[in-house]
Write a structure and sequence with these properties.
Layout: E1 7-12, H1 16-21, E2 29-33, H2 43-55, E3 63-67, H3 76-83, E4 90-93, H4 99-116, E5 122-127, H5 130-134, H6 136-140, E6 148-151, H7 153-159, H8 172-184, E7 188-191, H9 200-213, E8 217-220, H10 226-232, H11 237-255, E9 261-263, E10 266-268, H12 270-284
Parallel strand pairs: 1-2, 1-8, 2-3, 3-4, 4-5, 5-6, 6-7, 7-8
Antiparallel strand pairs: 9-10
Length: about 280
């Protein structure tokens, strides 16, 4: 796998100023948020602001995702209607418990993509419950759309009736399980947020633990956290070698007048080429 997923930073979808500032962020993924950071009475405003931001997609240098509300919220259909347009690279689905929820979301997504003539949009389910943790591999391997699993620690702790601490013992099993399930399904895993913005030493140590567990990057809530996450989750030798293979194979295919091709049994196309090229550019800078 060759892709930069060191950082996924959440930007409140109801904050016009923050949405504008996100254009200059150097995160690997900017994720406009419709869920936890947005009060219920501002959900519709957030949808409209995110829709406008997507119209200006070319002004954002990062990949652009949107986090919808959860499958059980009753709001996800409204979210998808507003945000599934040209300009969106992927969707983070919070609090996914099982593949039945994903299937329902995919059905709606497929309908919108067909209607609006869009390419298939990626999904990143967030595992935030005991049921989700048990079903993590089936969720990860459910569909080609699923490109990564995200670990959501706070709702997991709530579901398990565990008090929050910076290194909660009760979350260790789930935190370790998610990247194993993701890797077994051939996708990435992104670690949970670090809440204490003042504790940069703690963030660094938490990133080191996450990387040692097999996570490719970390969810973030503030731009000041980017440099630490990027330093710790720098691409490893295996990722660099795969990126080199993707670029070489794809360019060879293009010279033959073709587009999509196969490398080591895996389909690659222009999107994979661009991501691999970005990764190599980073390692050589």
């Amino acid at each position: 796998m060759a892709r930069l997923l060191r950082s996924l930073i959440f930007v409140p979808g109801n904050n016009f100023r923050f949405l504008g500032k996100a254009k200059s962020l150097k995160a690997d993924i900017i994720c406009f948020d419709l869920e936890d950071s947005v009060p219920d009475e501002e959900k519709e405003t957030a949808r409209k602001l995110v829709r406008e931001a997507l119209k200006n997609r070319l002004q954002y240098t990062s990949e652009v995702y949107v986090r919808t509300n959860s499958p059980t919220s009753g709001m996800i259909s409204q979210d998808l209607e507003k945000i599934v347009w040209k300009g969106i690279d992927g969707i983070v689905i919070p609090k996914v418990n099982n593949i039945k929820e994903l299937k329902k979301i995919e059905k709606k997504l497929e309908s919108l993509e067909k209607k609006r003539k869009l390419r298939p949009i990626e999904l990143m389910p967030s595992i935030e419950s005991a049921e989700g943790a048990v079903n993590a591999y089936s969720i990860a391997s459910h569909s080609k759309r699923v490109s990564a699993l995200i670990f959501g620690i706070f709702d997991l702790l709530n579901d398990m009736s565990i008090e929050y601490s910076k290194q909660p013992e009760g979350a260790k099993y789930t935190r370790a399980k998610i990247p194993v399930d993701a890797r077994a399904a051939g996708i990435y895993a992104i670690d949970a947020i670090w809440q204490d913005l003042k504790d940069k030493k703690g963030l660094r140590e938490d990133c080191i633990i996450g990387k040692s567990l097999g996570y490719s990057g970390k969810c973030l809530i503030h731009p000041d956290q980017l440099s630490i996450a990027h330093h710790i989750f720098h691409p490893n030798k295996t990722e660099i070698q795969w990126a080199e293979k993707v670029c070489k194979t794809y360019l060879k295919s293009v010279k033959k007048g073709k587009g999509a091709t196969v490398a080591d049994g895996k389909m690659i196309d222009e999107v994979h080429f661009k991501r691999a090229k970005s990764l190599l550019k980073l390692t050589k800078s």
